[in-house]
Amino acid sequence: MLLLALDTATPAVTVALHDGHDVVASSSQVDARRHGELLLPAIDRVLVEAGLRLDAVTGIVVGVGPGPYTGLRVGLMTADAFGLALGVPVHGVCTLDGLARAADLEGPFVVATDARRKEVYWARYADSRTRLTEPAVDRPADIAGQVAGLPAVGAGALLYPDTFPKAHEPEHVSAAALARLAAERLAAGEELPAPRPLYLRRPDAQVPKNYKVVTPK
Hints:
Strand content: 25-35%
Order of helices and strands: EEEHEHEHEEEEHEHEH
Largest sheet: 6 strands, mixed
Domain Gcp-like: 32-145
Keywords: Acyltransferase, Transferase
Number of helices: 6
Protein name: tRNA (Adenosine(37)-N6)-threonylcarbamoyltransferase complex dimerization subunit type 1 TsaB
EC number: 2.3.1.234
């Protein structure tokens, strides 16, 4: 097994290789505006670090969000393209699950990433491998009662200490954690879903009202 994992659902552009036993190379850069520019060089970098060729990859793992539309689709389209080119399966994993795996907490806790617009993408977890609720997007104040007293990880939790007073790192997802989680699930015989983006709201870019289509006569 050689899994190539990547995620662009948060400001982090993160890539890792997992050989079925552990992560053999990884790269993470935080830049919310350069996902498309940074992702392919990061993939090349981890392959060089591991001393492996792209055609050695047996599967792709990609974070499916939730996340902003533009950043998220960079990772998803890249994963699909690599899967088709290499003829290997592409597995989707919730980005929040990757953050939970990296947190490695034993008791109940919350993962929250920054959804902008003064909102967070979030979910509750029983432990680092078990999600209790479906991912959602809400204003922190509106979910205060549901997360009260729970530890929290992620950039969204760190941004709103009034709602998440027990927030701590990791701030962003790492592809290394995503790869470990996927490898564990595959080894246990689980069938990982095909990558389908978790878009929990419409994209920021909208067609202007009263837009007129101009066609030639």
